[in-house]
TrEMBL record:
Region spans: Disordered: 327-373
Gene Ontology CC annotations of this record: membrane
Membrane in keyword set: yes
Keywords: Membrane, Transmembrane, Transmembrane helix
Protein name: Rhodopsin domain-containing protein
TM spans (from-to): 30-50, 62-83, 142-164, 197-215, 227-249, 261-281
Amino acid sequence: MALDLSGPALLPPTGAVQNLDNPPNHNDGFVAGYTVCIFVTSVFVSLRLYAKFIFLKLPRVVDYLLFPLFGIYIAHCVFWLRMNGTTGNMVHMWNFRLGGLAPFYRNGFYGSVLYETVMMTIKPMILFEWTSIFAPSGLRNWFKWVAYTVSTINVLMYFIAIMIDSTSCHPRAAWWDLTIEGGHCINTKKLPIVTSTMNAIIDLIILLLPQNVIWRLHLSKGRKIGISLVFFVGVISVVAAVSRTVLGYTYENSDDVTYNFSRAGIFMLLEMTSAILVFTIPTTPKPMAHLAQQAGSSINRLMRSTGNGGSSGDGAFATGIAGPKADVYHNNGEPENSMPLTKIRPTKSQRAGGGVERDAESELELVMPEHLR
């Protein structure tokens, strides 16, 4: 017997009013949310690339990886927003026609795999970046081993998740098209619960890992608080991961799959966005201060050229903001319960030769400019 593709995908629960022709949705909210997240991440990704490729002229492998990773992030956003062009986002399944499920789920499938790819990549990038800040080259300590262990677990977890999602249905199109004859899928409803729970644990470790080091530095209390807050952006990712874990239990026991699937997309977006911000924000304060200095200098010169400017040292931006050749801070190896940072100016041979000092150049100074100590 042929399926009626124009019929409802699910019978409505008692008391619910079915609307197959113009079902209520939250498409506008999704467009607004995704637009804000794409804009914010674009700004900070650009600042990160400016800091590493232009300001410091010291890009690492993780900075080159940021290009394809950001492209995958944008691709996820495109696929999830394309779900607006189907029956819609945040639409109850009883308001879907059976024939409308395939295009909705197809975009969701690719969006989910792209999300898993981003999360598989960005967290090791964060941890490897932090080892260069808090455990420079040549130093093997607990920080590095924790970072390497967590990175390995994260990569394996998401690789397995991608493999399960990609091979759970035969043929693969049965993942999104329930009408394919002979198509069958294994039950993967517990997969989001497992991945989101592990995700929350990993996010919490990433959130807390640098705090112990920061509070052992020989810096003023105010500067420690400032640096600590910069690294606390990851709290958004922890909250999103915990929320997705709770939603996973709801999803497992609910027939309203389309609505819960859209809700999961919100937390996926928050997790990816906050992870990218965790990676990019710590490098932005000093380059931003440098750009502000340059803008202030340009304004002062313009004002002087029109007869309204003051002396070159009087402008609001003519402060002691450190430039690209700012003092470099390093762990001087004092034992155990303290981790002072000594001020070292790299020699010309170290700057050219890429020694330990060059490897760790100005990483903490990028977090908070010298004049803000």
